[in-house]
Amino acid sequence: MLEAPITSTDAYRYVWDGRVQLAGYSPYRYVPLDDALAKLRDPVLFPGLSPKEPSGVSGIPKDPAQLPVDDVRTRINRPGVPTIYPPVAEAYFAAVALFTPWSAGTLGLQIAAALIAIALTWLLAVQSPRWAALWGWSPIVALEAGNAAHVDVLAALLITAAVIATARRPRLAAILLGAAGSVKLLPLLLLPAFRRRRPIVALSTFIATYVPHLLAVGTLVLGFLPGYLNQEGFDDGSSRSAILALLLPPGARQLVAAVLAIALAAVAFHRTKRDPIALTCCWLYGAALLIATPTYPWYGLPLIALAALARRPEWIAVPLAAYLAYASYGHDTRQGLVYLAAAAVVVSAVTIRHRFVAESGLTAPPLRTNTGGRDETHRPRNLGRTRRAAP
């Protein structure tokens, strides 16, 4: 926490968005370089541009996707475009900014993210202290939450709380999932794992968070999201789906990725009737990352929490692969091979586990749930042998 963010400059955008909201402006309406917000500049965020110096920027550019990512006058990335973050994330930024002096820079967010990571460790420890260490001792969590202050840690907390609440408070679980989707959009991929009317409640919650901003700024509430998807290659698959890129041309990747995503959603909807929801959410989220192959390791923070909750440590290979892909930016083949290796690790672990379970005569590994403040272990029916399944 005592070092400036290392892996990205996203935290500076968080600081700015929170400050803009406290000043009564919408981060969806104004870009950081806009001279209308010049009075909010300080030497930490704008080392090369004082409040009295004009930036020459006014309003939102017509084609923001073509603007450079960085500007030497500010530490905020993409300072020529409006924010990309959904409403719950923006509310979080504003809340942290309320208690953070301007001179502290990103420290307030780093402390907040670290506290959220600790809270999530406790939440996982209530389920299983041993498996909580998979999250609590993770260097990835320390780096991407405590140092880089990525908002994905908040999404991880809400997703985990949603999965845990499903058994006894399904409506609350759906609301938490919708809120997680309003932190980062990726959690909405877990909707197929939530049965009955829960997806409707989750989507209603997600939409409801946008209503105040929609009334205030209209369609500007989309922010830079369309431009971001274009820059990052999500719209046509040109620079994403690195595993598929090893075999398919850019035009075909998008179609194949969509087909795979739909198929996985259908499988998840079917499997959640018989498998623990934590397990379904874990492999569904991890498989989505393997399809999209993002080069940002912090996207994997929710997956680490789900891996701990579902007791599937092999999925940690996916965020680890993201670091190698991050370091291999511009080398598409290398990125594809790195993610392919992560997929091989996951498939190998799943195969070995299923073989061991089959040989032991158990239908599934033991599942421990928390009931009334005490842990109870529910073991599946033994089909003839007494050997215990692997944890």
What layout of secondary structure does this protein have?
Blueprint: H1 10-22, H2 87-98, H3 107-127, H4 129-136, H5 139-147, H6 152-165, H7 170-181, H8 198-217, H9 225-231, H10 242-245, H11 250-271, H12 277-292, H13 301-310, H14 317-327, H15 332-360, E1 367-371, E2 374-378
Antiparallel strand pairs: 1-2
Index terms:
disordered C terminus, single chain, membrane, 53% helix, 15 helices, 2 strands, DUF2029 domain-containing protein, mainly alpha, 391 residues, transmembrane helix, 2 domains
Write a short abstract of this structure:
The protein is mainly alpha-helical.
Explain this structure.
The protein has 391 residues and is mainly α. It folds into two domains: 217 residues, no CATH class; 158 residues, no CATH class. The protein contains 15 helices and two strands. It has a two-stranded antiparallel ribbon. The two termini are 34 Å apart. Belongs to the glycosyltransferase 87 family.
